Amino acid sequence: MIPSSRAYWDPLWSNGRRYRQLATAETALLAEHLGPGNGRPALDIGSGDGALARHLHHQLGYRTTGIDCAPSAVALAAAQDIASGTNPTWRCGDITSGNLDALPDPAYAAITCRLVYRWMDDKPFFLDRVRQLLAPGGCFWVVTEIAGRRENTDRLKGLGITAAEAETLTAGWSVVRIADLDVFRCYALRP
Ligand SMILES: C[S@@+](CC[C@H](N)C(=O)[O-])C[C@H]1O[C@@H](n2cnc3c(N)ncnc32)[C@H](O)[C@@H]1O
């Protein structure tokens, strides 16, 4: 069983664990594949401290919601809201068990999921939920580590998804675009 729950993630965030920062190469790929938001809705799943949701909202112009199951991560994200202008909407909830109707929008032009897919216990079920939320013509952007790209001695070696998990991710989309970033792979998936 892969831990994808609040009980696993909340103490990590509150004890200071942080994940790889967004870098220019990654945000350039994001802009290239998603395009400008022009006020359309975006959803960042597993938004953590909110860096990607803020980027979508303030730099790319999406009206963004970030959802995360860890209350301490959501609090960290909300603490970085700016005083003037709009901010992303933050929701604390589990994307696999929560009520999708509780999200601010019924459908999203962009759904992002950075360093989260690997942790989804039931990946087909998770992907079904994403498909329910993705607007026609929308884009599902996934950033995930790929297995086999680290040295055997690297303690983070187990973080990559397997070839079978990658196949589950990419099956059933009409457009699949892939870009590699060292140990990561970015997927732009369209229905
Ligand atoms: C490795 S962190 C990545 C955080 C952020 N996306 C980033 O790139 O820094 C994984 C995040 O996914 C969240 N998460 C895991 N399972 C989740 C679920 N079922 N629903 C919502 N959030 C979840 C965790 O709380 C955690 O913040």
From TrEMBL:
CDD domains for this protein: AdoMet_MTases
Entry's EC annotation: 2.1.1.222, 2.1.1.64
One family name in Pfam for this protein: Methyltransf_25
Molecular-function annotations in GO: 2-polyprenyl-6-hydroxyphenol methylase activity; 3-demethylubiquinol 3-O-methyltransferase activity
The Methyltransferase domain, residue ranges: 43-138
Keyword vocabulary terms for this entry: Methyltransferase, Transferase
UniProt enzyme class: transferase
Entries under InterPro entries matching the protein: Methyltransf_25, SAM-dependent_MTases_sf
GO BP field: methylation
Protein name as annotated: Class I SAM-dependent methyltransferase
Native source species: Streptomyces yanii
